[in-house]
Write a structure and sequence with these properties.
With 416 residues, this protein is mainly alpha-helical. Helix content is 53%, strand content 1%.
């Protein structure tokens, strides 16, 4: 190889090396495997919104809520859930109370679609309908409350093209029957002498002096008054309530389950608390029984402050802190407190913080299926403390669903 050829080859080698060094190396990308159409892909997690603390303007604020606790959100979820909840063979008071709660929520939020679904669900149960067999038959306080549903339909459809007078007629029939003579197959629950004396005094033949009655009986007569404006329904309702106050309320403000069962059962007292709040919403300022009912209501609300747990809940037996926290009674007490604060019957600085804690605590017992948990099962009176402490705790029981909807409505209702 001559010198000239050697120089050329060396120069070419150096030039090639320089060019290779200046050229960026491209990474080798392996081919992407195409997923088959039926390949299962894991669900992509939706990113959670950034956390932002919700700080109410005051400890007793009833308008600003943490995420997931808004009464609009919770009430809507439970009301829609009720629309699809299977009904039993016979309509009992828990279904009626849930219908009422869903109806009032629909009215307050102007949710006509929800209202119409609730009406459509009840329509087949009307006389002549395909589900009339669901209508109760007993002449009994727990069954007569059935009339609340057609009365609420009459109230909410009045003035609308869909108004049908049959709902008002059926509802007032139930309300009037409640003050009529008992049917032969529905004997009096009190001893005959006491029963006759109470009826002679103007009380309903369905009177049995159980604390529960002060929601069942109260609501039917109130709804008849609200639907018709007929004062007779209100007057006899108030007279009945005063009698129960005299027989059941104790100096501490709480109520025995019955005169012969001296326990402060949570939901039993909850029925009375909710019944008084509803009564006072409709009872005129000049009604002779209003001062008596208001005084008893305030006495009870003061007791509830004392017995509310640090967790915001009330117990299965109210005055026993070792008893388990019970959701249906806690929702009822929250409803009664909220109503009193918003009407101005209760001092807001004192009672609104308890109402707020109660609502937040109760919502914590609503699960991902919109079922209320830790609900005491249906409970008759029984003279044993252990009987109440051992009651079964249920999930999705309408005894619990209903008052959560009442409380949500109370928070949204413009009371003044």
């Amino acid at each position: 190889m001559n010198l000239r050829l050697s120089t050329i080859l060396c120069t070419s080698s150096l030039l090639a090396a320089t060019l290779f060094a200046q050229t960026p190396t491209q990474p080798v990308t392996p081919p992407v495997a195409q997923a088959s159409p039926d390949a299962t892909q894991p669900p992509r997690r939706v990113p959670e919104p950034p956390y932002k603390a919700t700080i109410p303007p005051s400890p007793g604020d009833l308008t600003v809520w943490p995420r997931g606790v808004s009464p609009l959100e919770v009430g809507k979820a439970l009301a829609e859930h009720f629309v699809t909840t299977p009904l039993g063979r016979g309509i009992a008071y828990p279904e009626v109370c849930s219908w009422y709660g869903a109806f009032t929520f629909a009215q307050i939020t102007h949710d006509d679609a929800l209202r119409d679904k609730l009406i459509a669900r009840f329509a087949p149960i009307m006389p002549g309908g395909p589900e009339t067999h669901r209508m109760p038959q007993r002449h009994h306080v727990d069954d007569s409350i059935f009339g609340v549903v057609p009365l609420q339909i009459a109230i909410q459809t009045k003035g609308l093209p869909t108004y049908d007078p049959k709902y008002l007629q059926l509802g007032t029939w139930w309300a009037d029957r409640q003050w009529g003579p008992l049917a032969p197959d529905s004997p009096a629950e009190l001893p005959l002498g006491e029963h006759n004396a109470l009826v002679k005094d103007g009380l309903s033949p369905e009177t049995r002096l159980w604390v529960d009655d002060m929601y069942m009986l109260t609501m039917l007569q109130l709804e008849a008054y609200r639907a018709t404006g007929d004062r007779k329904y209100l007057d006899r309702d108030a007279h009945e309530m005063v009698t129960y106050l005299d027989r059941l309320q104790q100096p501490n403000g709480l109520f025995f389950h019955a005169p012969d069962v001296k326990y402060f059962w949570g939901r039993g007292d909850g029925w009375f608390a909710a019944g008084m709040a509803e009564m006072l919403r409709s009872l005129p300022a000049d009604h002779p029984d209003r001062p008596r009912i208001m005084a008893s209501y305030k006495l009870m609300m003061a007791a509830l402050l004392k017995y509310q747990g640090a967790d915001g809940m009330w117990r299965e037996l109210i005055d026993h802190p070792e008893a388990w926290p019970e959701s249906s009674s806690s929702a009822m007490f929250s409803f009664a407190l909220i109503t009193g604060v918003k009407h101005g019957w209760l001092d807001a600085a004192t009672y609104a913080p308890a109402a707020r804690r109660g609502w937040i605590a109760v919502v914590g017992y609503v699960d991902q299926n919109h079922d209320v948990t830790q609900v005491c099962t249906g409970t008759g009176k029984f003279d044993s403390m252990q009987y109440y402490l051992d009651r079964k705790r249920e999930t999705g029981n309408l005894h619990g669903q209903a008052p959560v909807m009442w409380a949500a409505s109370a928070l949204l209702r413009d009371e003044k």
